Amino acid sequence: MSDLSTSLQKINTELSGTSCRLVAVSKTKPNSAIQEAYDLGQRVFGENKVQELITKQEELPNDIEWHYIGHLQTNKVKYIAPFISMIHAVDSLKLLKEINKRAKSSDRVIDCLFQIHIAQEETKFGLDESGLLEIINNETFKSMENIRMRGVMGMATNTDNQNQVRAEFQHLKAIFDKVATEFQAPNIDFKEISMGMSGDYQLAIEEGSTLIRLGSVVFGARNYA
Ligand SMILES: *Cc1c(COP(=O)(O)O)cnc(C)c1O
To answer: What is the DSSP-derived secondary structure letter of residue 75?
Structure first.
């Protein structure tokens, strides 16, 4: 058995009996590796560069569910809007307006997640709870018919301190629960919590993740990115 088939089998065993699914993060990996995972039954793949994603999407099977997991620039939304299954890292109303507009042009409704900043590390990406509430209470947001907000996404601090990582995942879950129970809108249908990467996915599953985004434990270490 190949390394890839061994690792996919191990992860799928860990996922069986949970409501969590695997997003196989294939960034920097060649089409041959994605095709091999596809042939083993994997259908959901995650990428974080627009150009790389559109090249792969053109060359690989049509029933792949592509998830965009990186920071998305507004001017690039148009390239992925015709086919993208889910956009994980939405952190501004400006970006949502563009996604809504391009989804409408493609006659689609695009599933999106709000990226929430849960880690201690400084980064310019991700909303805090008040920023999230500001968007979902915004009248323009409420009128957007071609997006569907499916939940939240977050990245825990890169640390060996498991208690800290667990607390950050719990924080993300608490924000998810609050919106899921307190907010009703046609474009809000919270079902997904995207949390957990190669180093922390077991904790994420324990804390209620529904989408783990795994790259290196599936495909092996990356040379870059
Ligand atoms: C690269 C990446 C991953 C996967 O990272 P691994 O540690 O290789 O599992 C997950 N999420 C995001 C947003 C990424 O950019």
So the answer is: G
